[in-house]
Amino acid sequence: MLVAGAPSRVVNLSSKIQTTVDLGDLxxxxxxxxxxxxxxxRAKQVWSVDLANRLKNTGVSVVCLHPGICKTNxxxxxxxxxxxxxxxxxKVLKSPETGAQAVVFAATDPSVTSGSYYSVRKLVKAxxxxxxxxxxxxxxxxxxNMLKISPVISVPYRTM
Length: 160
Hints:
Distance between the termini: 24 Å
Shape: globular
Radius of gyration: 17 Å
Number of helices: 5
Order of helices and strands: EHEHHEEHH
Strand content: 5-15%
Structural class: alpha/beta
Largest sheet: 4 strands, mixed
């Protein structure tokens, strides 16, 4: 549908809180909630770059965006080691409306390039894992296997 409706754009929301995706443990069985969150955010970035690569020359662009640290329900009941710092910072967090402006920018601004990672409205270098074609392919194939679906978009892998 995205290709048929091109030009179109996919915007995946992520976070600056990222850490290396453990390709041998995609279910995050060895990690606590914050580490699992950070791995999931990196996986979104890797997956977004891969999808952009797969959809190259179709009229569909894909970007990954950290909208900024916004005051949402995610911060409403902080707990654990990060509980107090998160609670203390709640007064300086961006409003959800400000975060939404970054999303609208990523979705509509003509300067936004496919396969890129943005922090708020600033283009930043994607992670080493996201730039690695072998990592992207492994994550895509593993995700497809976990979901028991066949990848419908097949392309040769190249560095972004």
